[in-house]
Amino acid sequence: MVEAPGGKRPISLGGGPPLLNSRTTPWAGVTFEVHRFGSWEVGGECGPLDDECGLLVILEGQLEIVRRDGKRELSERVSAGRVDFLDGQNRPHVLRMKGSAEAAAVQLSKAWFRRLLLEDVPRGFGQRPPLADDTTVLNLTRAMRDEVARGAPTGKLFAEGLSMALLSYVVERGPISTLSVRGNLTDEHQRRLRNYIIEHLGEDVALTDLAALVGRGTRQFSTLFRRAFGTTPHRYLVMARVAEGARLLAQGGDVDVVEIALRVGFCSHSHFAEAFRRVYGVTPRCYASGRRSISIGA
C-alpha cells in the first residue's frame, strides 16, 4: 500500500482507487499500482508503509513538488522518467503539488531481492538519489503498465522477465548488459531447456522453473540464456509456440485456429494471430489455406 500525505489512503488525488492495480490481474511480476497525481495541498509524509520499499516512477505528465527538508522548503519539477527510491523509514514530507502526472508505485518485496541472490533489501535503498530522465526504467515500467492494462495475457515468463530486468537495473544502477555474470549454459543444459519448453508449450512457463532446471538463479539464468540462444527466454518461448502452431496448421484437414492457439499456449486467438503475423507475414488462416493449396496442387 502507498500512503498519501495526511494518512493511510491511496496516493491518488481525492483518495480514490488507483487507475490500475496489478493485484486484480494474473500478473506474476512485482506488485504495482498506477496513480494519477494532481494539484493539492495537504502536507505530511508520503510513501511506502514502514516495512516496505519500492519505486515511484513518473510515466506521463509533469509535476512541481514542494517538500520539507528540515526547516527548508525545496521545490523541484519532475517529469516522465523520474524515479524515486522509497522505503518506510525515509518517507519524504510533501507540502504541496501542482500539475498533473501519471505514476507507477512499484512495491519491491524481500522475496524479489532474494531472486537476485541478495539476503535483504540493499542498505540505504530509500536514501538513494532519484534518477532523472531514466529511459530504461521508464520503458520497463510502461511495458508493465501496458501488460497489466490488457489483463496480463502474455504469461508468467514475460512478467518475471520484466520484473527481474527492472529490479536488476535499479539495484546495480546500470544497464543490464553490464552485470557481471560468469559462465555459460552447456550443450546438455540447452538441450534440457529446449525439450522442457517444447513439452510445456501449452502451460504458463515460469522463469524460476527454467532457471531451476539448470541450477541457476533467475538473474544469472536470464543473462546466460540470452548468451546461449541469442534472445530472451520469453521471446524464445513465443517463437516456439508460433512454430508449433505453424506445424499444426500445415497438417491439413479442418483447421480450428482458436483451438490451436490455446493448445500451443496463447491466451487468445488474437494474441496468436498477432504473433504469427509478425513471424510469417500472414494470418494463421491464410497460412493454413496456402498450405492446403500447395498440398492439393502437389
CATH architecture of the largest domain: Sandwich
Structural class: alpha+beta
Categorize the overall geometry.
elongated
Reported for the largest beta sheet, the result is: 7 strands, antiparallel
Q: Any idea of the CATH topology of the largest domain?
A: Jelly Rolls
Radius of gyration: 23 Å
What count of helical segments does DSSP give? 10
- For the terminal residues, how far apart are their CA atoms? 64 Å
Arithmetic mean pLDDT: 83
**Strand-and-helix sequence, N→C?**
EEEEEEEEEHHHHHHHHHH
User: How many E strands?
Assistant: 9
The figure for the number of domains is 3
Q: Beta-sheet strand percentage? A: 15-25%
- Low-confidence blocks of residues: 1-15, 174-179, 292-298
Overview of this protein structure:
This protein starts with a strand and ends with a helix. It has 3 domains: 2-164, Jelly Rolls; 180-230; 236-297, Arc Repressor Mutant, subunit A (Orthogonal Bundle), CATH 1.10.10.60. 35% of the residues are buried. The protein has 298 residues and is of the alpha+beta class. The longest helix is centred in the middle third of the chain and has 17 residues, at 156-172. It has 10 helices and 9 strands.
